[in-house]
């Protein structure tokens, strides 16, 4: 496809094929669950990683949810998440005692591409696409002005106060015609409702923040949940080097209908939104197609992500990186 690192969803050997292959190659450890189907007919795929994955009911062990690519253009989130998935599987195969213990007791859920239509569109048509592929004006094609923002459509303070999302379909933060109107939202909400993750890392880019609920209102109480600081760290000592932890509405801006607010409130989930870096200053959403920079971004986030996995069993005793 002309890239060194980036692979689309649809292309042969692309991310969809990879997720299927990972599940097929690791039958005792990985179970593929199809959470739903997008407007354009793509599967929304989750991988559950736990010992004996296919023999134990989903949600029967403490769960951690690693999600990425809600926003089509944030390609770095896919690479960080899929590398985390491979890391866990590879450590298991290498007989790493710590990972084996985690995976006997905990289920790790990976939704590597939460918005496959938008992701594919960003390869085929518009690199800076953000939203999904809802055909807002029903003209049979996806063009500028179409799409719903997947991180404004959740059934949690959806559209609250009309601040932090837009009712206008043409806008980049269009929240959709109603709460949970989108297949991508229904898929993620359904997973959260089913497995009630102890923790979530909902990967976005960019800005090097480590955000947590609530997003819909400044100064909300969840910032006081000690687990957000225990696992996310502080400005002086952040869980991801160089990232600033903070309550999302205070630190960045107000949103509503947001994923981690939904998980926090409805799943009892300690849910973070890491905003990954740019790779090089000024790159913005267009993280460089550079293996060393991509790998570095993954390595930087790994201790935080492993901390979530190790802590899920006993959140009262969090393992910070
Ligand atoms: O706006 C978003 O959905 C996220 N930022 S992005 O640039 N990746 O689009 C941030 C969501 C975090 N929540 C709040 N800031 N309330
Ligand atoms: Zn984003």
Automatic annotation (TrEMBL):
Residues 158-179 are annotated as: Disordered. Residues 5-305 form the Peptidase M14 domain. Transmembrane segments: none annotated. The active site is at residue 275. Coiled coil: none annotated. Belongs to the peptidase M14 family. Carboxypeptidase that possesses the specificities of both mammalian Cpase A and B. Thus shows broad substrate specificity, being able to cleave Cbz-Gly-Leu, Cbz-Gly-Val, Cbz-Gly-Phe, Cbz-Gly-Lys and Bz-Gly-Arg in vitro. This is Zinc carboxypeptidase.
